[in-house]
Design brief:
Elements lengths: L2 H17 L9 E3 L4 H8 L4 E5 L2 H6 L3 H9 L3 E5 L8 H14 L3 E6 L1 H15 L10 E2 L8 E6 L11 E6 L4 E6 L7 E3 L10 H20 L5 H23 L4 H21 L3 H13 L3 H16 L1 H14 L8 H18 L14 H12 L11 H12 L2 E3 L5 E3 L1
Parallel strand pairs: 1-9, 2-3, 2-4, 4-6, 5-8, 6-9
Antiparallel strand pairs: 7-8, 10-11
Helix pairs in contact: 5-6, 7-8, 7-9, 7-11, 8-9, 8-12, 10-11, 10-14, 11-13, 12-13, 14-15
Keywords: NAD, Oxidoreductase
Family: Belongs to the iron-containing alcohol dehydrogenase family.
GO molecular function: alcohol dehydrogenase (NAD+) activity; metal ion binding
C-alpha cells in the first residue's frame, strides 16, 4: 500500500479509537436457558414472537423446547426457517413478510451467526421500511431502534449474540456486505449449552476456530483497550482448553459452556477493537463461493498471521502464553511461531483442511477488491495492504501458484 493511503488509514483508525469511550456500546443481558425467554416476553407484554432459524435446526427439533415454552405462556411463535449458511437479501425479505403478516413484537434469533445476521438485518428493515437493505450497509446507518432482539447461539463461535455487526450476501452480485450499528446488538443473549449438544463435530471445530479468530484479530489490532485485551486473552485461554474436548464429546457440558463463554468474550472484544484481513478475505470467499465463514477463517488464520511477520510477533507471543503453548521466557518471534504452529495443530487435530477447494484464479482480483473495500480504512490491522497485496492470501489457501509481477510463478 502506498504511503499516503497508509497514513489516511491510520488516521481514520486513530479517530475511531479516540471515539471509543463516547460510543454507545452495551452488553446484552445474559439468560441461562431458552425457557427463560417465555417469562421475559410475558413481562414485556409481547404476545407474538418471530423465530429466525434454519431448516436443519427446526426440523431436528432443536427449537422445540423454546416453541413449547412460548406456547405454554400463550405467546404465538411465527417461524422463519429459510436462513442460508450465508444469509441473503432474499432471506431477510422473506422473514420480513412473515413478521409483518403475523404482527410480531420481537425477534428471536436461534442458531449460528447466519440466523443472527438474518435477524439483525430483519430488525433493520422493520425499523427502516422505506429503505432497501443495501442502503443500510456500512457504519452507523441504522440509528432507529429495532424490535426487541434475543439471540440464542447454537454454536460457540460467531459471537454474533453480542456484536453490532451483520453480514448479508447479495446473491446476484456474489458479494457480501456488513452492517455495523449499535442498535443491532441483541438486548438479551441466551447462553444455554444444551442447545449446542447437537452441533456436528466439524461445525464445532470451525465455529470454535472462528471465535479464536475474533479473539486474535481483536488482540493484534491497533485499536485495543484494556478491556478488549483482557477479554481476547481470556477467550483464547478458554478455547485452547476446551475446543478439542467439545469436538470429541459434543455432550461435554462444561466444555460447551466454556466455549460459549469464550465466544461471548471474543465477540465483545472484536465489537470494540474490530477484526482484520482474515475476516475481510473470508467474507469475500463466502460471497463468491458460499464457503462457510468459520471454515474460511479457520484456514486463513495461520496463513495471515504468519504473513504479518514481526509486526505481530509481540502480541502473538502474549496470546501463545495465554493459550499455554508458549512461555514468558520465549522471544517474541519464537512465541509467535509456537502460537501459529499450535493453531495449525488444532486445525489438523479437528480435520480442518489446509486449503479451500474451488477457488478460481479469475475471481481472485475481484474478491481482493471486495476485501480491500471492507477492511480499509476501518480495520486497524498490524500491516496495511491494498487489494493487489491481498491477492496472495487467496493463492495460499487455494494451493495455487501466485504470479510474480514479472509474470513468473511463485509457489505460495
Amino acid at each position: 500500500m502506498n504511503i499516503f493511503r497508509t497514513i489516511f488509514c491510520r488516521i481514520f483508525q486513530a479517530a475511531f479509537r479516540l471515539a471509543l469511550p463516547l460510543l454507545p456500546y452495551r452488553e446484552p443481558e445474559k439468560l441461562t436457558g431458552v425457557k427463560d425467554i417465555a417469562s421475559l416476553l410475558t413481562e414485556k407484554h409481547i404476545h407474538c414472537a418471530m423465530l429466525v432459524t434454519d431448516k436443519w435446526l427446526h426440523d431436528s427439533g432443536a427449537t422445540k423446547p423454546l416453541e413449547e415454552a412460548l406456547a405454554g405462556a400463550d405467546i404465538k411463535c411465527a417461524v422463519y426457517d429459510g436462513t442460508r449458511a450465508n444469509p441473503t437479501v432474499a432471506n431477510v425479505a422473506e422473514a420480513r413478510e412473515i413478521y409483518l403478516k403475523e404482527g410480531c413484537g420481537c425477534i428471536i434469533a436461534f442458531g449460528g451467526g447466519s440466523s443472527m445476521d438474518c435477524a439483525k438485518a430483519l430488525g433493520a428493515r422493520i425499523a427502516y421500511p422505506e429503505k432497501r437493505l443495501n442502503e443500510l450497509k456500512g457504519v452507523l446507518r441504522v440509528l432507529r431502534r429495532i424490535p426487541l432482539l434475543i439471540a440464542v447461539p447454537t454454536t460457540a463461535g460467531t459471537g454474533s449474540e453480542v456484536t453490532l455487526a451483520a453480514v448479508i450476501t447479495d446473491s446476484d452480485k456474489k458479494y457480501k456486505y456488513t452492517m455495523n450499528d449499535f442498535t443491532l446488538i441483541p438486548r438479551y443473549a441466551v447462553l444455554d449449552p444444551s442447545v449446542t449438544y447437537s452441533l456436528p463435530p466439524h461445525l464445532t471445530a470451525t465455529t470454535g476456530m472462528d471465535a479464536l479468530t475474533h479473539a486474535v484479530e481483536a488482540y493484534i489490532g491497533r485499536s485495543t483497550t484494556k478491556e478488549t485485551r483482557r477479554r481476547a486473552l481470556h477467550a483464547t485461554e478458554l478455547i485452547f482448553a476446551n475446543i478439542v474436548r467439545a469436538y470429541d464429546d459434543g455432550h461435554d457440558a462444561e466444555a460447551r459452556a466454556n466455549m460459549l463463554e469464550a465466544a461471548y468474550n471474543a465477540g465483545i472484544a472484536f465489537s470494540k477493537s474490530y477484526v482484520g484481513y482474515i475476516h475481510a478475505v473470508a467474507h469475500s470467499l463466502g460471497g463468491q463461493y458460499n464457503i462457510p465463514h468459520g471454515l474460511a477463517n479457520s484456514v486463513l488464520l495461520p496463513v495471515v498471521l504468519e504473513d504479518y511477520g514481526k509486526a505481530a510477533h509481540k502480541k502473538l507471543h502474549r496470546l501463545g502464553v495465554a493459550a499455554g503453548v508458549a512461555s514468558e521466557s520465549d522471544s517474541h518471534k519464537a512465541g509467535a511461531e509456537k502460537f501459529i504452529a499450535a493453531i495449525r495443530e488444532l486445525n489438523r487435530r479437528m480435520h480442518i483442511p489446509a486449503v479451500l477447494d474451488g477457488i478460481e484464479e479469475k475471481d481472485i482480483p475481484v474478491m481482493a477488491k471486495h476485501a480491500d473495500r471492507e477492511a480499509n480504512p476501518l480495520y486497524p490491522v498490524p500491516v496495511e495492504m491494498n487489494a493487489r497485496e491481498l491477492e496472495k492470501f487467496y493463492y495460499k489457501v487455494s494451493g495455487r501458484k501466485a504470479k510474480r509481477s514479472s509474470g513468473k510463478e511463485e509457489e505460495q
